[in-house]
Structure formats: structure tokens, C-alpha cells
Design goal:
Strand order of the largest sheet: 2-3-1-6
Helix content: 40-55%
Strand content: 5-15%
Number of strands: 6
Radius of gyration: 44 Å
Largest sheet: 4 strands, antiparallel
Shape: elongated
Order of helices and strands: HEHEEHEEEHHHH
Low-confidence stretches: 141-151
Oligomer: single chain
Number of helices: 7
Length: about 260
């Protein structure tokens, strides 16, 4: 049984027994680790693609897409560190077994993650340099990753930042403006509203005019119908008189 089907089987079993979000859950073993392992990644995905997929379940502090040293080509697996270890549970439960570009992702916890050797050496050199300079503030920034550190010093598309975001439950500004305009128009209409008695009179007058218009249309229809009948009878009479004349002329010619 592969990792994907095993994780799905354990999750279904926990859900049936009501063990989710409890100390008896299998996720509790990894509560002190904020790292996950992602396998079976399409080789054409970049670090940015991995961030886009997995950042929907929490703030990402670090990502390590393993590449070949010689060519730089992705080897198809990566490690992601979340700011909160609880995000790992969401990522494993929701993304393990999901398909990306036709490939089924394998997402699992990492109990003890070891940084690559070159990264350890780089961070060790930076730490030594920081300690030598005695810059306590810079050392804290290297050793501890704060939420939103990836956006520090960057100009965002909106006026919001990582600490004061947009109120998702507030009505959009356009809707608020429309509601305000509707209320103002309603107040204006209410101030100039006519008396109910005047409204009844106007309604009766309108109905009376409609009835008169209908009577007028009926009379016009009846007149046109009678006119067509008269024309029809007139044409029939003229045809009968012409026939009589022809018969009379024939009888005279025969008598001669």
C-alpha cells in the first residue's frame, strides 16, 4: 500500500471514530515539526508554483525544491516549512492525493528535517558574521522567521499589510455607496410623495382613458369591416351587370 492510500485510509478511520483534532490523532506525533514533504511533483514546476499551491493553508517560511546539482532540473520533490505547524495538518489532509498536471501529489509530515549541507554552511557563516559584528537585531532576523517576512520592504498592491488586512465580512465599497444613494433617493421621493387621494384620482383617470381608447379602436375596426363588405358587394354587382349586357348583345346578334 503506497503512502497516499495509507494516509487517506487513516484519515477516514479517524473521521469515523471522531479522533480528528485530538491528542489521539496520528498528526499529534508531528505537532513539533512545521515541515512537510511533497513528492511526485511535475518537473516543470518552480518554487513559485509550490508556494502558490501550498500557501493556501498557511504562511510559508521556507521552501526547498530539490534540484540536480549539475543541470538545476527539479528532481520532483520538495520540502515546505509553515509558520504554524497546524498548517501541516491541513496541507497533508487536503493536498495528499490531489492531482497537479496529471500527477498525484504525495504530501506527508517530516518529523526531523535537516537542511541541505550548503544551506547549513551558508547560515553558519552568516551567524558567525552576525555574532562578530554584535548586531543582535540582525541575528534575530536570521534565526527567527516572522510572519510576513517575505513581504518586508515590498510595495503591496493595496493599502493593507500583513497585520491589518481587509475586512472580508464588510460589504464592498461600491455596494455601500449604492445603498447610500438609494436611501437618499428614497428620502427625496418620500418627501415629494403625492397624497393617496390624488393617486386614486390619477389611477381612475388613467383607466377611463384606456377604456375610451379601446372603444375607439373597436369602432374603427367595425367601420373598416363594413367598408370592406360594401366594396365587395359593389364589385359583385358590377360584374353581374356586365354579364347581362354581354347576354343581351348575343341575343340581338342571333335574332338578326
Amino acid at each position: 500500500m503506497n503512502v497516499i492510500s495509507e494516509i487517506q485510509r487513516i484519515n477516514d478511520l479517524e473521521l469515523a471514530r471522531g479522533l480528528t483534532h485530538t491528542s489521539a490523532s496520528w498528526h499529534a506525533k508531528y505537532s513539533n515539526s512545521a515541515w512537510i514533504n511533497i513528492g511526485s511533483l511535475p518537473s516543470n514546476l518552480t518554487e513559485g508554483d509550490v508556494l502558490c499551491i501550498f500557501s493556501q493553508y498557511g504562511e510559508i517560511d521556507d521552501v526547498h525544491l530539490v534540484r540536480e546539482a549539475a543541470t538545476g532540473k527539479s528532481r520532483g520533490f520538495a520540502f515546505v516549512k509553515y509558520e504554524d505547524a497546524r498548517s501541516c495538518v491541513l496541507a497533508v489532509d487536503n493536498l495528499c492525493g490531489s492531482k497537479v498536471l496529471g500527477r498525484m501529489l504525495r504530501v506527508d509530515h517530516v518529523e526531523r528535517y535537516r537542511l541541505p549541507k550548503h544551506v547549513q554552511e551558508r547560515e553558519g557563516n552568516e551567524m558567525m558574521m552576525t555574532e562578530t559584528e554584535g548586531d543582535e537585531k540582525k541575528r534575530n532576523k536570521i534565526s527567527v522567521a516572522e510572519a510576513g517576512h517575505a513581504y518586508e520592504g515590498q510595495e503591496l498592491a493595496t493599502s493593507y499589510d500583513i497585520h491589518s488586512g481587509q475586512d472580508l465580512f464588510a460589504a464592498p465599497k461600491i455596494e455601500r455607496d449604492n445603498d447610500h444613494n438609494n436611501q437618499r433617493e428614497g428620502a427625496t421621493t418620500h418627501g415629494t410623495e403625492k397624497n393617496p387621494v390624488d393617486n386614486d384620482k390619477a389611477e381612475r383617470k388613467r383607466r377611463k382613458e384606456e377604456r375610451a381608447q379601446k372603444r375607439k379602436e373597436k369602432e374603427e375596426h367595425r367601420r373598416r369591416k363594413e367598408e370592406r363588405k360594401r366594396r365587395k358587394h359593389g364589385s359583385a354587382g358590377s360584374r353581374s351587370s356586365s354579364k347581362d349586357k354581354r347576354r343581351h348583345s348575343r341575343s340581338r346578334s342571333c335574332s338578326k
